[in-house]
Amino acid sequence: MFEQEIYDQIENKLFLKASLAKIPLRGDFEITPRCSMACKMCYIVMTPEQIRSAGKHELTAAQWLKLGEEACKSGMLSVLLTGGEAMIRSDFKEIFSGLSSMGLTVDLNTNGTLFTPDMLDWMAVNPPSQVNLTLYGSNNESYERLCGLPDGFDRVSKAIDDMQAMGINVRINSTLTPYNYMDADQIIAYANERKIPIKLVSYNFLPKRRDGDDAYIERLDAKTAGELELKLKSEPWSAPGDLYLKKLLEQIERKERSSNPQPMEISCRAGRSTFWITWEGVMLPCCTLDNITAYPLRDGFDAAWKSIYERTEKIFFPEKCWGCDKKPFCPGCPAIYYCETGDSNKHSDYLCAFADSLIAAAKAKYNGD
Predict the structure, then answer these.
(1) Which of 5, 109, 152, 293 is the most buried (most CB within 10 A)?
(2) What is the pLDDT of residues 151-184, one digit of tens each?
(3) How far apart are CA 294 and CA 234, in angstroms?
(4) 265 pairs with which residues across the strands?
């Protein structure tokens, strides 16, 4: 844990310097919208038939490698391959190897269903720097309900065991929905048993990229999601932990934020030191902010990146949130507000209710209220 904390501190300082210098230190390459599953809350997944019907096509391996080369010249040191399911592409190995040969650290987002013996043999020689694997449940029944894959858990669990046996660095991500929230304790136990770091959250953003203004998913009501979030954040393996939450409660009591409200800029790395490129080749600040776009293949990488960071600098939180004492308990950011309301500057009733629920649960736990 100590080594990980040191690594995180160094990484944070590096990205802070990159943000100040407007250097695109990391890129997320969304190389396909296709997937081996059909998760109900996915914001991007498309079948090959849907792609053809829309008159669209994925970038070629050569185009992805061209983007990688140009991004490297501008300062990129690491890249994440994601989808959809990145490994569903027949030329996945070509893209991965080409980017790795540029000296980049290559991470992989995956659902873990395509780790065939051949792929595992290849990955033993060409390991990703990190594999971020999304675990959607603790049993096959949850996978069938949420992902439409009856043997999903068996396949994913085997992939995790195989990668651990090979010494590949695996991390687990998971999001709780109405279809799998009852698995929370079992998902945590699964990760702890295998000593795998896990990030588990209860908030689901609306899939605006998929559905536009009509975006909708079945998600947990705000009260339930907020209560579950307290449980997740106060688990021993959670980065925030009890001490962090107690400090936030003390901050609310002192009303430190509301005493001097200031405009709140976007505070993450998106559009400052990181960027996202969609499967069609469109650059975004992050995966959800599709109202800020640039075209690196058409206009050149540097011009696209400059356009992205200049417009990202003009994004602010809703004014109603600037002095809100509840903000540290709220999952909202300008990108999330955009998904929730269609406007980065418009606050969300769902997010407010989520924060209220989390605060009430935290007070009850820590203050005996």
Answers:
(1) 152
(2) 999 999 999 999 999 999 999 999 999 999 999 9
(3) 40
(4) 316
**What are the structure tokens assigned to 165, written together?**
């046996």
Report field, pTM of the whole predicted structure over 0.90: yes
pLDDT over 70 at 218, yes or no = yes
Alpha-carbon gap, residue 369 to 206, rounded angstroms: 33
Please report the beta strands in the chain, taking only residues with DSSP state E, as ranges in sequence order. Answer: 26-30, 78-82, 105-110, 130-134, 170-175, 198-201, 274-277, 283-284
- Find the Cα–Cα–Cα–Cα dihedral 252, 254, 259, 262, rounded to 10°: -50
Separation in Å, CA 289 to CA 44, 59, 159, 347: 13, 20, 32, 16
Torsion angle of alpha carbons 146, 152, 153, 157, nearest 10°?
Answer: -140
Looking at residue 326, its pLDDT comes to: 85
Amino acid (one-letter) located at 52: R
In the block, which residue shows the tokens 């409660």?
A: 249
Identify whether the C-beta of residue 84 lies closer than 8 Å to the C-beta of residue 30.
yes
Do 56 and 85 meet the contact criterion of CB atoms below 8 Å apart? no
303-310 mean pLDDT: 98
Look up residue 55 and give its two tokens: 């008159």
